[in-house]
């Protein structure tokens, strides 16, 4: 199982890149799970007034919606679940997962997944230099980012234009 975290500012293109990767990985018949880190402590995935929404808002610790083709679990937590627990749950549910793609960062005591940084503007580069050790690739938007500046800041890392996403796919497929 390969776990890769995608980080970048809001509107940097993380979702679009992950969406493209999911399609390409599924085309290769791989099992892919995406975990989206949400910064808001309380968020809604259900619609107000629906039965599952009502049961959860009545105070249930968890509500699971199940149909013949889908399910979802909405559960209360005190803190963000650590990556180890999330991976354990996903492996238990799906038996075998080839890729877990994380949009954002999930706290972890033991696992430090490789990071792909998505940069849309030059001013975003400095904020993520602290992750340099974990970053395996920087994906940038050619029309608004100076490639040389990224190459200096992230020397030795893969620097990939968003127009060449296939290079990112190959890198992720070959990660150990």
Mean pLDDT: 86
The CATH architecture term of the largest domain is 3-Layer(aba) Sandwich
Order of helices and strands: EHEHEEHEEEHEH
CATH topology label of the largest domain: Rossmann fold
Proportion of strand residues: 15-25%
Overall geometry: globular
Structural class: alpha/beta
Computed CA radius of gyration, to the nearest angstrom:
18 Å
Tally of DSSP helical segments: 5
Largest sheet: 6 strands, parallel
User: Within the largest sheet, what's the order of strands?
Assistant: 2-5-1-6-7-8
The count of DSSP E runs of length 2 or more, i.e. the number of strands, is: 8
- Within CATH, the superfamily of the largest domain carries the name P-loop containing nucleotide triphosphate hydrolases
Span between termini: 9 Å
Helix content: 25-40%
Number of domains: 2
The top level CATH class name of the largest domain: Alpha Beta
Low-confidence stretches: none
Brief rundown of the structure:
The chain has helices at residues 14-27, 51-57, 83-94, 147-153, 165-174; strands spanning 2-7, 32-36, 62-66, 71-75, 99-103, 115-119, 135-140, 158-161. It is an alpha/beta fold.
């Amino acid at each position: 199982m390969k776990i890769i975290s995608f980080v970048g500012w809001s509107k940097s293109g993380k979702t679009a890149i992950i969406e493209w990767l999911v399609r390409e990985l599924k085309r290769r018949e791989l099992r892919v799970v995406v975990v989206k880190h949400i910064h808001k402590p309380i968020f809604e995935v259900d619609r107000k007034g629906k039965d599952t929404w009502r049961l959860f808002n009545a105070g249930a610790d968890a509500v699971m919606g199940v149909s013949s083709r889908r399910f979802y679990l909405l559960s209360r937590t005190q803190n963000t679940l650590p990556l180890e627990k999330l991976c354990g749950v996903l492996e238990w549910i799906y038996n075998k997962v080839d890729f877990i793609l994380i949009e954002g960062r999930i706290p972890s005591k033991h696992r430090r997944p490789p990071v792909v940084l998505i940069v849309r503007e030059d001013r975003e580069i400095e904020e993520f230099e602290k992750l340099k050790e974990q970053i395996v690739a920087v994906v940038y938007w050619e029309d608004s980012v100076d490639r040389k500046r990224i190459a200096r800041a992230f020397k030795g890392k893969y620097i990939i234009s968003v127009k060449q996403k296939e290079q990112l796919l190959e890198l992720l497929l070959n990660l150990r």
